[in-house]
Amino acid sequence: MIKILMKVSRMRLVAENLSARRGEDLIFTDVSFDLGAGESLVLTGRNGSGKSTLLRVVAGLLRPETGRVTWTSDSADSGMRAAEACHYLGHRNAMKAELTVFENLAFWKDFLGDTQDGKGIPPGEAADAVGLGGIVHLPFGYLSAGQQRRMAFAKLLVAYRPVWILDEPTAALDVSAEGVFTELIKAHLAAGGILLAATHQPLGLENAKELRMTGFAGVGEGRW
Amino acid sequence: MTALLLRDLKLSVRAGGGALIGVLFFMTVVAVIPFAVGPDLNLLSRIGPAIVWIGALLSALLGLDRLFQTEREDGSLDLLLMQEHPLVLTVLVKCLAHWLGNGLPLVIASPLLGLFMNMDEVAIGATMLTLLVGTPALTFIGAVGAAVAVALPRGGLLVSILVLPLAIPVLIFGVSASYAAVEDPAPFMPPFLILVAITMFFAVLGPLGAALALRNAGD
Amino acid sequence: MTDSLAISKFSDLANPTRFLALAARILPFMAAATAILFAIGLYLSFTTEGDYQQGLTVRIMYVHVPSAWLSMMCYTVMAVSAIGTLVWRHPLADVSHKAAAPLGAAFTLIALATGSLWGRPMWGTWWVWDARLTSVFVLFLMYLGLIALNRAMDDPSRAARVSAVLILVGFVNIPIIKFSVDWWNTLHQPASVIRMGGPTIDREFLWPLLVMAIAFTLLFFTLHVMAMRNEIWRRRVAAQRRMAARLAGREA
Question: Where are the domains of chain B?
Fold first, then answer.
């Protein structure tokens, strides 16, 4: 169902000694990981332990206090920002309620474009893949919360990115939709993709690495 | 990039879009002026260009705070920030779309208000031309304010306070060029060309500043 | 739903399905009557003699006066509908004042534009801040504000209630606006402006004017019923699209 063209390559997403702060508090310190093609990392931990912050740091949306994130692959130009190889699905869906689902997906396909490692699929097929093929002509705002989340997931399919960064992807979803997600994630990994996800629910992935976030690494003393 | 331009244009004309509101605000602001100064046609035609310009300035600022805020509210801003298109270009395209959706209608509506102000044909033409050239500068300056205030819950008023002082040069040269076209001794071209220069200057500086602010506003 | 679509009580009109059936039945007659009256009215307006002072421009009056009359009548219709929305919560009342707002704006715009064209040769300028023109212009702005308010909200019944409140506040406020504009105008009245109206209307102009006024009123009601019908259809389409969205979730 999902066809993603892939060359087997030596993709790596490497994070070294990341630490980040929110306000004056250090949320986490010295987080390192190294992910290759087909590997996944699941962040667990209670609320406020810094899962979302870490994901936003990797996506390049927050500046890390220390450390860096690097991306290497066959086709990546040297010095390519890691964020450019990433899809980020945060708490919010990044879709416009006024536009139809198709317009939303087509816009992101066009705007995001593909990286050289693979190709995205047309918006209609992406909607089929999340099980909502018949309603792409409807305004996004007409959809229920669960359907919106699924359409936001379809956005990951329309433009190809090797790394998927998912923040609570299964929030507001029922069991069957979770199953659809798990299948898509598995297909992505099987095709050589990389997954980085924060979640409460188990995603049902075999051999996923797990990173337990404990949270609150202490007030940033010595700064003043 | 064309996709972004088209999307923003679509959003500005769909239900709840700002295009209609901006023009309405413009008309309303200009229309209440005579109630304050009285229906003296000679007086109105004398202050007409200035009033139309002030109305356009205020209504151009009206929708600006939403420029990045709507994107932030639904999470689109994150995705826009992550892409390899230079962020400056993304901001520039968003500004252009915003101007086409909100600024251009003001320019088109201005001759009508000129008639209400009893301005003659030359003054109306000059005001329209200066608005056409000057309003993009307002959008570009406003983009900086919108980017700075993007994360603030009640950013709307703050954007106006931040941006109005910066927009003073545009107002000065826009209005003086409009007057120069009507009153004989003053030449039209110098203030008009300075206005063009200001617009081109801010077309570069505005997106640069806004992009910088957006990068640092990340949370 | 009953088999009979006959309307026995006034409240039966509140049923959108019956309204649609009724609208389908009477719209052809209303349209035909409007067309005939317009034909007669236009014939009369162009065959009567011109005014010796104003010449041919006096014929603008046959369009201007009926539209000005309609601009005010339309607001009254909207105010009545607004009461219907707030007091009886008729769904049709919501539809009625929403559908009337663009029509009111259009007729007001025609009144303003024809007034301006008429004023050009009379006053030598396109626009004067005469009390009557100014009041009509304020009314025009109110119509546009209502249209913008309706467009800005996506929940139709909430939009209807909020705009109904605004319509009623505006309706109460209209005499105050009119009074204050008159006050303002007499304070500042510049000598150069010629007052509108002038001598009482000659009998010769009265007949075509009356026919045109009736024709315009009929035109308004025809358009209003059509706009209401479209609005009901639009809401049904929206409801079905929402339903489609809900069903798509079920089967997957």
Answer: 2-216
